[in-house]
Amino acid sequence: MSISRREDGLIITQERPMLPSLFISHGSPMLALQPGASGLALSQLAAELAKPTAVVLVSAHWESTELHVSGARQPATLHDFGGFPAPLYQIHYPAPGSPALAAQVVELLAAAGLTAQIDPTRPLDHGAWVPLSLLYSQADIPVVQVSLPSRLGPALQNRIGHCLRVLRRQGVLLIGSGSITHNLGELDWQAGPQSIAPWAKEFRDWMVERLARGDEAALLDYRRQAPHAQRNHPSDEHLLPLFFARAAGERFSLVHQGFSYGALGMDIYRFD
User: Are 171 and 21 in contact (CB under 8 A)?
Assistant: First the structure.
């Protein structure tokens, strides 16, 4: 809700459009240079949504032991990868931060019994700036990141998503950035978009079915129940942002589905 005061002293309140929360499979850093179908889907999604007042994002690439919230006024662009073409390292995403929003995030977490510290120098990792560069190329929307205490699993992300969902009423876009499948050791770097490993598709389809049903118990227990869970996610960190996004929204729907390199899921989901 926004509040404005007219010259005659009358106070007018306006409801901001309620944005969904998003889960974005951010793929390889090369997505920034070679957007493909996933990049097009992100651009189209941004055009459909009202422009956010800010973005709060959980990325698989800011793992931590404790909870932290980025509080830089002008976060740097972190190129946290190696072995890619030189032009990728020349990309900068100069979106501002928001110390005030970071402080609000810390307060909301504290109200839910979760202690978080502000990191005043944290840059934007590629799990943030790569998808954001395709959503909002003008880099004019403030971005705040929340770290990922990955050892604490999906239940913590559920809690964080629930307590931050109120920010959607302020026009803030909540994003979990990870990957629906993520086993880099089994990727086929020569595979085309139509080449899909059966074990990756089976896992992805199982997750989508449970998301559509709202089967939270099964989702939280995915490592035991989902087919090929360990193979698709040797470690949890790239799937955990999905639990944040799901808890921050409600109604699940598909925005985009696909695979790159045979087994790297590129799905995008929204929760309205």
Answer: no
